[in-house]
């Protein structure tokens, strides 16, 4: 089973799939650009479906941490707290090259 690891000596400490130099960021960017898991696996033979699922799970957990920090952080910045479920994050999906 592949898992996510981070080592400051590999890819500048970015989260990568274990035993590879394939970053979570790369997998997410490729999926967002419309590549299928099969295309990603073909381009990266050392990667597995489990690695792609691990990258997605890692991204989901990271987003939860960001949202929890935003909601539960002390009001040190003078920003009023938002009701649960309303997090004013702004996200623009990448433009897909045609």
UniProtKB/TrEMBL annotation:
InterPro entries: DUF433 (IPR007367), Homeodomain-like_sf (IPR009057), WH-like_DNA-bd_sf (IPR036388). Coiled coil: none annotated. It holds the Pfam family DUF433. PANTHER family: SSL5025 PROTEIN, SSR2962 PROTEIN. This is DUF433 domain-containing protein. The lineage of its organism: Bacteria, Bacillati, Cyanobacteriota, Cyanophyceae, Nostocales.
């Amino acid at each position: 089973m592949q898992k996510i690891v981070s080592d400051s000596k590999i890819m500048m400490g970015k989260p990568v799939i274990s035993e590879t130099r394939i970053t979570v960021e790369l997998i997410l960017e490729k999926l967002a650009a419309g590549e299928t898991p099969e295309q990603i696996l073909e381009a990266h033979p050392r990667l597995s479906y489990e690695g792609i699922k691990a990258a997605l799970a890692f991204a989901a957990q990271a987003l939860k941490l960001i949202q929890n920090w935003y909601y539960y952080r002390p009001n040190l910045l003078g920003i009023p707290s938002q009701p649960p479920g309303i997090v004013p994050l702004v996200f623009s999906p990448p433009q897909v090259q045609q």
